[in-house]
Automatic annotation (TrEMBL):
Keyword Ribosomal protein: yes
Protein name per UniProt: Large ribosomal subunit protein bL19
Cited function: This protein is located at the 30S-50S ribosomal subunit interface and may play a role in the structure and function of the aminoacyl-tRNA binding site.
Any one GO cellular component localisation term in the record: cytosolic large ribosomal subunit
Pfam families per record: Ribosomal_L19
Annotated transmembrane regions: none
Top-level taxonomy: Bacteria, Pseudomonadati, Bacteroidota, Bacteroidia, Bacteroidales
Species in which this protein is naturally found: Candidatus Alistipes intestinigallinarum
Family: Belongs to the bacterial ribosomal protein bL19 family.
Amino acid sequence: MNKDAIIKLVNEQMWPKTDADVPSFKAGDTITVSYRIIEGNKERVQSFRGVVIQIKGSGKTKMFTIRKVSNGVGVERIFPLYSPHIDKIEVNKIGVVRRARIYYLRDLTGKKARIKEKRMTRSEEK
């Protein structure tokens, strides 16, 4: 086996998820990530809903950051896109932003922190 075949085999073993398993989203979209948490011998699923403020990396090491405001405190969490602990990713709203990394959202509060929502036509919904 050559070097490329070995790397491909290792990648398939470590990251069983493919691009078909992951929905497409970008910065500004509101998504819900269902994340499996293992504590000792117990296992539970926790949902984290927020706005995607950045997507970084490429290939199997791609990661994304989600921000939400909980009890007046901003909370950000970074998820590996192809993590085996992620059960599902749902895209709730498609936002309209002009930047790939919307760090300016950290300084905004109240109505200023809202992101415009993309209106879906009937043909796009299907």
